[in-house]
Amino acid sequence: MNQRITFGEWLPDQPSVTGALVKANNVFSKAIGYGAIPSPVDYSQSASENLTNVVAGRNPDGTTSIFAGSETNLYKLDTADLSLDDVSGSTYATPVGQRWRFTQFGHRLIAANGFDRLQGWLLGTSTAWANLAADAPKSRYVTVVRDFVVSGYVNDSGYSSRIQWSALNDETSWTTSATTQADFQDIPDGGSVVGITGGEFGLIFMDRSIHRMSYVGSPLVFQFDNISRNLGCYEANSIIQYQGVSFFLSDDGFYACEGQNIIPIGNEKVNRFFYSDVDEVFLSNMSAAIDPFRNLVIWSYAAKGQGGNVNKLLIYNFETKKWSSGNTDVDRVADASTPSVSLEGLDAFSTSIDALTTSLDSRQWVGGKMMFAGVRNAKIVTFTGANLTATIQTGDLSAENRKTALTLVQPIVDNGSASVAISSRNLLSEQVTFGTASAADSENRVSIRSMGRYHQLEFTPTGDNWRTAIGADVELVPMGGR
Predict the structure, then answer these.
(1) Predicted TM-score (pTM) of this structure
(2) Which of 94, 195, 212, 416 could cross-link 205 (Cys pair, CB 3.0–4.6 Å)?
(3) What's the CA gap between 363 and 293, in Å, rounded?
(4) Among 363, 386, 409, where does a domain finish?
(5) Which letter does DSSP use for residue 362 in this model?
(6) Paired strand residues for 57
(7) Is residue 238 within 8 Å of residue 299, measured between CB atoms?
(8) What span, in angstroms and rounded, lies between the C-alpha atoms of 303 and 327?
C-alpha cells in the first residue's frame, strides 16, 4: 500500500511511536515542512582578541555601523576593508561569565559589561567609546523604556536587585532628581536581576520572579508589578526580545512573555531534551538571537562532553510555534543589521565576485537589514553561506501493528531530493539502527527492502539550493502479500 507522510512536528520529549519527528536538525520549521539553515561565513577580519558579542547602530543618515566587544576592548567594523578597528575608550574589565550588552537611545549607542561605567558612542560623531556620564552606573544590563535609558544589576555598591534609570530624554544625566525623573528602584523579592527588556514598558527578569515596569510620571516615575512569582529566568544569556515579546529560559524550560502572560513554549516539546543535552556547568556560554527573515528565535549552547565549547542550536519558529535543532561552531549568535557595501567594497570579501561565499541576492549586501549573525573566535560571522547538511528523522511508521516490508521511498523536497536510510524493528524495545543511506535515482526513487512492524526513515535533503523538505511517498507491503 502507498502512504504519503508529511514531516510533522519535532517533539523530542515525546516517544517516537506517536508519529512526531525524532530529529529535525539544521532545518527550521515552516507552515508545511522544513527549510534549510545556511552555514556561517566570516564577515570581518580578526580582532585582536576573541569576541563576545556584536551589535549594529543606526546612524543619523540612515546608514548602519557595526560594533563588537571582547573582554577588554570595543571594536568598530571598517566597511572599506572589513577590519575591526579598536575604538575603546580605555581597557575594560569585563567580569568572567559576562559580556557586552548594547542598546540604542536616539543617536547614541550604549554598552554595558557589568564592571565599567556605561559606555556611550554618538553615532556619526564619536571616534572612541567613552563613559556615558560621570554618574552613569556600572551595570550588567541596559535597555530603553519609553524615554529613559534603564540599567539593571548595578555594580557600584553591589546592588544586584537594583534598577536605575536616566533623566527623561537625557541619557547623560543619572543623578536622582524629581525634576529630571532620574531615579532607581531596589526590588526586594525574586533575587538578583538577570536581564531587562524594554519598549513601551520594561520587563525585569530576576532569579525567581518577573516584574513589569510601567511609566506613571512623577513622583513615582515607574510602577513595578510582579507578574510572575517563583518563576524567573535561569540564564541571563537566554533572554531575547522581538516585536514586544521576550523569550527566555527558566529553570523548567522555555517561555515567552508579552508583558502580561508567561507563556510556556517548550513544555512537553523540547524542555526535557534541552536539559538532558545541555552542559549546565557552562550554561553561561549560551546566547540568543532573532532571525527576522525566517521568524526564528535561535539559542546556542554547549552540550555535555564538549568542555564548554558551544556546538548546538535550538531553534523556535514563533509563527508556526514549532521547534528544530542545529549544529554550530559559532561561539555566540546575535542579531545585527548590515552596513551598505558598494560593488567596489566586495573586493574586501573575496578575490572575485565568482568566489563569494554569499549570494549577491543576500540581504547581507543591503544596508540596514536585520539579519542572523554571530561571532566565531575573533571574527564576526553571518549565516549566509551554503545550506548546512540537514537530517530529518521520522517517528515510527506502522500498519496496524502488522509486519510490513518497506520497499520504496520517494522524497518530496522542493528544488531538490534526499538520501534515505531506514531502520526497521519488530518491538519498540529494540534498538533503532539505521543502515547505509541510499541516494534517490534519476526518477527520485529510493528502492529499498526492510521488514518489521515499525519503520523509521532518516532523510538528508540534497541539492545545493533545496528549499523545503515536505515529506515522502512510501510503499509498505504487508508480509505475505505482494
Answers:
(1) 0.91
(2) 195
(3) 10
(4) 386
(5) S
(6) 65
(7) yes
(8) 10
The one-letter code for the residue type at 471 is G
18 and 166 co-located in one domain: no
Phi-psi region of 381 (alpha: psi -120 to 50; beta: other; left: phi over 0): beta
Q: What is the CATH number of the domain that holds 15?
A: 2.60.120
- Of 355, 386, 417, which marks where a domain is finished? 386
Query: What DSSP element (H or E) covers 275?
Result: helix 271-277
Q: Backbone phi, then psi, for 197, in 5-degree steps?
A: -130, 155
E strands present in 137-237: 139-145, 148-154, 159-165, 183-186, 193-197, 202-206, 209-217, 221-229
**Mean pLDDT rounded to a whole number for the chain:** 92
Instruction: Give the CA angle between residues 122, 128, 132 to the nearest 5°.
Output: 55
How deeply is 354 buried, as exposed, middle or buried, from its count of CB atoms within 10 A (0-12, 13-18, 19+)?
Answer: exposed
Same structural domain, 353 and 373:
yes
d(CA 314, CA 297): 8
Band (pLDDT 50/70/90 cuts) for residue 343 is: very low
Q: Is the pLDDT of residue 347 over 90?
A: no
Statement to judge: residues 49 and 165 lie in one domain: yes
